[in-house]
Amino acid sequence: MEGLTVLDCAMQQRPTLRAEWTKNNWKNQRLYIVANYRELKILDTTLITQAPENTTNGRIDHDIKFWKGAVNLTTFYEVGAGLEQKKEFIYIKVNDGQGVYTWNDYNADGIKDLNEFEIAAYADQASYIRVFTPSNDYIKTYSNEYNQSLTLRPERVWSNSTGVRKLLARFSTQTRFRLQRKTNVFDGARAYNPFVGSINDNSLISTANVIKNTLYFNRTNNVGGGDYSYESSKTKTLLATGFDGRTKESHEFNGRITILKKFSIQSQFETGLKTSSVDYTTGRNYRLHYWQVKPSLIYQPTTSFRFSLDGRIIQKRNEANLGGEQADIYDIGMTGKFNQTQKGSLQGQFNVIRIAFRGDSNTPLGFELLEALKPGVNYVWSLGYQRSLSKNLQISIQYNGRKSEGNKVIHAGGMEVKAFF
């Protein structure tokens, strides 16, 4: 029984019944349909009291291309019914720089509470990983997943046209849907509708939804162009102790123009709303409105050398009924990169960041607003070198540093050697 858990020993899955159908002989199309049925039997009711539940799922996968490849459409839809296992998670200490999370002792009690871990913003902070562990609790779920992508590239057929078609050929667009939803209530067709339900819906067990649309203008033009993107995302995770829900909705505009061949200007404007709704701990609920502007002046005399002056202005504001915290960030910096063909690259960056902050910085929301820095003037810099020693051996060296107002300088470095076989 090596490799099996106690719960695995208590349950047995009988063979799956499966039916599938594929259609490949359509021109520029492919259709695949599959359905599964699996029966579950409880072998030892003393180890698990959950009633046996059978699982079903079905999937449709469809790809189509037409109009000389100017239109590409892919569709994936899957539905199912079965059991969802509640999860717990813990944070485990690893070597500094090899983790994902950092621990901030907000209440200064020396105890690593779940609400004191954040995603590390800098490598020297990344000292913990999050590990999910199964629990003995199961819940009946009805699931669905819908993936859809649509790409329109009229320049593939109208690039040599004139008039209105020539103008339309400068535009292209890409739309993507990825909607996953699990609920514990069967309410007919609604249980398999990926477009319904909100994070606050008590019957919603988990969700991971991303909707993004980007409209491009002069996407492949070297002189200038731009794009507009709308993105909406929702995530909700079922835990043994509660739920963790987050949403984000944003509008982003990007523009670029080349001046005198060696100089170019790029700019970005983004505005949106981030929310967090957590019921397994306290201090993590917020509705954060934000906007940011990021202009850059780029000098690139050759393909080997690139230098840029970068700016950034950000305002983040939590809603008044949730605390009203606010951060205004003013960032100016420079970046340089030098490449040697088939040899290596050297790059460096230096930023001066001034943060005006209103609120309690020693909180999870304060960490989010301050981007792991401190109120006042901050200095952040980095230097990296990568070189290929041979066809199968590559070495990279990275150094990072930062200095916040009233704090000591923090230095962090690392070296990595990669061998390709």
Task: Characterize this entry briefly.
By secondary structure, this protein is mostly beta strands. The protein is built from four helices and 21 strands.
What is the topological layout?
Layout lengths: L5 H5 E3 L3 E7 L5 E10 L1 E3 L12 E12 L4 E23 L7 E3 L13 E3 L8 E25 L2 H4 L5 H5 L2 E13 L20 E14 L6 E16 L2 E18 L3 E16 L7 E14 L5 E14 L7 E15 L3 E15 L5 H7 L5 E15 L2 E12 L5 E10 L2
Descriptive report:
The chain is mostly beta strands. It is 5% helix and 62% strand. The chain has 4 helices and 21 strands. The chain has helices spanning 6-10, 155-158, 164-168, 364-370; strands at residues 11-13, 17-23, 29-38, 40-42, 55-66, 71-93, 101-103, 117-119, 128-152, 171-183, 204-217, 224-239, 242-259, 263-278, 286-299, 305-318, 326-340, 344-358, 376-390, 393-404, 410-419. It has a 17-stranded antiparallel beta sheet, covered by helices on one side. A two-stranded antiparallel sheet has the order 1-4. Strands 7-8 form a two-stranded antiparallel ribbon. A hairpin with a 7-residue loop joins strand 14 and strand 15. Mean pLDDT is 85; it is low at 1-13.
